[in-house]
TrEMBL record:
InterPro entries: Cro/C1-type_HTH (IPR001387), DUF5753 (IPR043917), Lambda_DNA-bd_dom_sf (IPR010982). The lineage of its organism: Bacteria, Bacillati, Actinomycetota, Actinomycetes, Streptosporangiales. This is Helix-turn-helix transcriptional regulator. Residues 21-75 form the HTH cro/C1-type domain. Signal peptide: none annotated. It comes from the Bacteria. It holds the Pfam family HTH_31.
């Protein structure tokens, strides 16, 4: 469990919301279980929000405002619209609990599908020099997802540039593509390739992913240093539509396996 003392409410609006929720709950003499009952959610949800592991949703912000006459809806909307660099809030928690992952990758192999050597090659050219810690974190996130007793359904669409852009040595790329081919053999994993012949499409402006968590979906957009969590249903729907349109253009699964094999053989 995260240490609530490690939250930085002066830096992150999401952390401020987490701290305020705990403060107001305790001021009213409510336990986490009692507040969860009043909101109609799980006790674990209250704990995750208060510890900064996931953001407060608009749905429960509205219920808090109704119960306590507060302004959590306004704070949540401000946090969603802001860019405070706190992109990691909720990401690992959502990844671990998601029953379905849909990913569009425009430039790089998605993090959950990267080999250790591919990760090292990426970290080597980055600005963060604590490579061992970053590698350990990346592999831990992968283990949480892939070692689950019931692994999630995963659908991935890779741009052809992902396979054409060398990351590390020839051996690193061959091993990475081989890993993708092995994953694609799993019954719960689908990997498709967007070929260059597809022309312009709505994924050219960046990578994103969609996660199904419980009875709702959330989206993440990738960007250097500052990815963004998207939770508003209408905004998440826009990403779902974009993904469906990309899926309409991508090569079928069988053809994509052939493309992966040809790409791997190109690295000799």
């Amino acid at each position: 469990m995260e240490d609530p003392q490690a939250l930085a409410p002066d830096r992150s609006l999401w952390d401020y919301i987490a701290v305020e929720l705990r403060r107001m709950r305790e001021a009213r003499g409510l336990s986490g279980n009692k507040l969860a009952q009043q909101l109609g959610c799980d006790r674990s949800y209250v704990s995750r929000v208060e510890n900064g592991r996931m953001p407060l949703s608009l749905r429960y912000a509205r219920e808090l405002d109704r119960l306590w006459e507060t302004t959590f809806v306004r704070l949540v909307r401000l946090a969603q619209a802001s860019d405070d660099g706190d992109w990691f809030t909720g990401l690992t928690d959502h990844e671990a609990r998601a029953t379905r992952h849909r990913m569009w990758s425009a430039l790089l192999v998605p993090g959950l599908l990267q080999t250790p050597d591919y990760v090292r090659a990426l970290l080597h050219v980055g600005v963060d020099r604590d490579m061992d810690a970053d590698l350990e974190q990346r592999l831990a996130r992968q283990a949480t997802v892939w070692n689950s007793p019931k692994p999630p359904l995963v659908s991935v669409i890779l741009s052809w540039t992902v396979l054409s852009q060398p990351v590390g040595s020839v051996e690193v790329m061959r091993a990475q593509i081989s890993h993708l081919m092995e994953l694609a053999e799993e019954p719960h994993i689908s990997i498709r390739v967007m070929e260059a012949a597809s022309g312009a499409h709505n994924g050219l402006d960046g990578s994103f992913r969609l996660l199904t968590v419980g009875d709702r979906e959330v989206a993440f957009t990738d960007a250097p240093e500052r990815g963004r969590l998207v939770t508003t249903p209408s905004d998440v729907m826009k990403y779902a539509v974009r993904y469906d349109r990309l899926a309409d253009l991508a090569a079928p699964v069988g053809t994509s396996r052939t493309i992966l094999g040809e790409s791997m053989e190109a690295y000799r």
